[in-house]
Amino acid sequence: MADYDVIVLGAGAAGLFCAAQAAKRGRSVLVLDHAKRIGGKILMSGGGRCNFTNMYAAPENYLSQNPHFCKSALSRYTQWDFIALVADYGIEYHEKTLGQLFCNDSAKAILKMLLSECDKAGVQLRHPVEVEQVSKTDSGFTLATRLGALSCQSLVIATGGLSIPKLGASPFGYKIAEQFGLKVLPTRAGLVPFTLHEQDKQVLAELSGISLDATAQCQHTHFHENILFTHRGLSGPSVLQISNYWLPGDVVTFNLSPGEDLHAWLQNEANTHPDAQLSTVLGRRYPKRFVQVALEYFELTNKPMKQYQGKQLQQVAEAFEQWQLKPNGTEGYRTAEVTLGGVDTDELSSKTMESKKVPGLYFIGEVMDVTGWLGGYNFQWAWSSGWVAGQNV
Predict the structure, then answer these.
(1) Which among 94, 190, 225, 304 is least surrounded, fewest beta carbons within 10 Å?
(2) Per-residue pLDDT tens digits for 98-155
(3) In 3D, which of 94, 173, 198, 148 has the Cα closest to residue 362?
């Protein structure tokens, strides 16, 4: 039986980073992954440029039943620590918006860096390898695989969540947690586009490809970024962000004129261009195709500005600033960037990521109930949780 100090299951961001940290401490480390091609999520993230962290990453950017759990790891291995590593490797990067850092060239640079860190520290990596069974022993764990039986003192579960199954996502990590008596919280797709009820979809599908500056609000939380109309529903950063807070049946309120008083602007336009049609005026702010559909969708009459009396312009403004939409659902794990829920953090030590019930069993990354906002926050959680476990396995 091949024996290791540490076996890491999952060669994604968290798993590779943890493996390198542990091996640097002189531990013998084996990483196993069931995919033919490792690092798929790293390579596809950020449109192939990998949004590898966020300059503003902080505990308040994460969702968890225990919002305090992530504080220790995020403070001990910060975004600045990872940025320094990226700089050491000469990887050029830029800030896109809102602190989001992307590689100038390709996400391959980040994966290559992680593999180099593992290689330099002496990590062994094997894939594709299926783990058929995990058993607890007096000294650690035994794994049954097609490589034969493998044993380790510390077992790290870095198998991710259920999002993007075509990249190999599976519930394996949750099953291991349940096997050892750890509580797993219900999971759902996060950072995911909305689908629409048929009556909304019939009208709004015509707008596919149009992007608008907007705020999206739900559950006392709001985000100000773009929304994107698609042939299936609504996407774009603002929608993906708010999807983490949305539950079936909730209404999402969109303000399509964020940061500006639309009523005051319309009133000014009516004074300066009294003979202009409402559609013409709105066409100065929004794409013309959007204006045509919006007037019909919001049931607004198109007429010369001088004909709007009393509160009629206020009603036009409210239609655009307080658009209330009840999504039909989400596109699910197929297009979700993350999985909400997972291994209950109350089962784990925030200082080490080790199970409180099962000595030597660790969970890191997306498999646990810590989910970041869109924009590099989930990668930072992978680095921070992986680093902490790497110091302790």
Answers:
(1) 94
(2) 999 999 999 999 999 999 999 999 999 999 999 999 999 999 999 999 999 999 999 9
(3) 173
